[in-house]
Amino acid sequence: DLYRKVFVFRKDPSDAYVVLRARLEQPLHNFTVCLRSYTDLSRPHSLFSYATKAQDNEILLFKPKAEEYRFYVGGKFVTFRVPEGRRDWEHVCASWESATGIAEFWLNGKPWPRKGLQRGYTVGATAAILLGQEQDSFGGGFDLYNSFSGELTDVYLWDTGLSPDKMRAAFLSLRLPPALLAWKSLSYEVKGDVVVKPRLRE
């Protein structure tokens, strides 16, 4: 149980990562991914990487610079410009629905203007899901200068788009619906220099 714990990625740049195991029975037509990160990196870094054999950036949450997030679905991305962080925890949720191609992005419990992305696309189910590295091939092909360094916690993946209430609940660490990946019951494997520690503060 990772309740009130974090993954600390200690080195910069780093070859470390965490493999997540999700129970994916079928391809995704909708999904929401949420996580909380704490870092002082100003270089590009990957937060959540979901690759299939056909597409290495099937789902990717990537931060190319301090004031920008990129959200990829099926190799295409939209950019969300954000205020430069105050060196504090940042909670992000990104959701997507195939039918409309609507991509939602929430930062610290607040929605950004919605954007269009990959309408009609289907996200493959046989996936390598990694924290801390960006995959350029299935389960590998890392560029160390896109690695994450810092602290990650509260990682979730749902096979639905969350309602605004639930998006806010995720930010506030309240009760959430059952998920494919849930922080409190995460099935994971650490590869390299990553340490599980209690959270220093809420």
From TrEMBL:
Disulphide bridges, residue numbers: C34-C93
GO cellular component: extracellular space
Cofactor(s) required for function per UniProt: Ca(2+)
Top-rank taxon, per record: Eukaryota
A single GO BP: acute-phase response
Pfam families cross-referenced by the UniProt entry: Pentaxin
Keyword Signal: yes
Cofactor note: Binds 2 calcium ions per subunit.
UniProtKB keywords: Acute phase, Calcium, Disulfide bond, Metal-binding, Secreted, Signal
Keyword Secreted part of the UniProt annotation: yes
Xref: InterPro entries: ConA-like_dom_sf, Pentaxin_CS, Pentraxin_domain, PTX_dom
Main location, first listed in the record: secreted
Gene3D superfamilies per record: 2.60.120.200
CDD domains found in the cross-reference section: PTX
Subcellular location: Secreted
GO molecular function: complement component C1q complex binding; metal ion binding
Protein family: Belongs to the pentraxin family.
Quaternary structure and interacting proteins, as annotated: Homopentamer. Pentaxin (or pentraxin) have a discoid arrangement of 5 non-covalently bound subunits.
Name listed for the protein in its UniProt record: Pentraxin family member
UniProt source species: Polioptila caerulea (Blue-grey gnatcatcher)
Gene giving rise to this polypeptide: Ptx2
